[in-house]
């Protein structure tokens, strides 16, 4: 039997089922917990009743009646997301999602992947994808402080001095944003380009901060996430991150987790 119930006087073996299934690339931990609540996850044919179930192996575990395979080695892919796509597996409103594009963009031997973070429908650029739910979680945690770099084209006026002040962080409508490294680039007419590097990745952070400065963003491109850059990857295309590059990056995450 692959489960062992937790006991107050004994530290449970294995991993919580949500973590184990996320590691196997089924879905994020939160989504796995929803699957459990919906009765979609079973062990030896019996629905899992609690997300506080611990697994020592995936033997007998199934989702929607399909056995869960042991996790494959972590892989990471770079995808140049175009505007007009939702970062989700499906959209109730029927809008196109990144998975509609990934069918033809990913290599044929690519495993099932999940997006690392999100880009909204009007934002383009680098979106990372992984088959490893635990890697996804670590990369998304604000405590990991992984820098994300964006280039924003905006209408309006701003000075470099105003952008320099963002390095101390800013509070907008009760929301505190951490240190932002922002630099003004040349523009044409009333349109300017601003490069911004953030580490928290809060919802619509770049847009909200620039709007707070009086700018109207009309194009937003993510150009880097940690050490991984968009480079010249064509729009709508995907590429596998080299194993050695991923390995080096994952080792930095592990070192950070020990601090």
Structure report:
This protein has 259 residues and is of the alpha+beta class. 23% of the residues lie in helices and 29% in strands. It contains seven helices and 17 strands. Strands 7, 8, 9, 10, 13, 14, 15, 16 and 17 form a nine-stranded mixed sheet that branches. Strand 13 and strand 14 form a beta hairpin. Helix 1 packs across helix 2. The mean pLDDT is 89.
Tell me the structural class: alpha+beta
What number is the mean pLDDT? 89
Residues in helices, as a percent range: 10-25%
The main pleated sheet reads as: 9 strands, mixed
Number of strands: 17
Quick tags:
alpha+beta, 29% strand, 259 residues, elongated
Quick description:
The chain is α+β, with helices and mostly antiparallel strands and 259 residues long.
Strands, helices and their partners?
Blueprint: E1 15-16, H1 17-23, H2 29-37, E2 41-43, E3 46-47, E4 54-55, E5 61-63, E6 66-67, E7 76-81, H3 98-105, E8 114-115, E9 123-130, H4 133-140, E10 148-155, H5 160-164, E11 170-172, E12 175-177, E13 181-188, E14 191-198, H6 205-212, E15 216-225, E16 228-229, E17 238-240, H7 243-257
Parallel strand pairs: 9-15
Antiparallel strand pairs: 1-4, 2-3, 2-5, 5-6, 7-9, 7-17, 8-9, 10-14, 10-15, 11-12, 13-14, 15-16
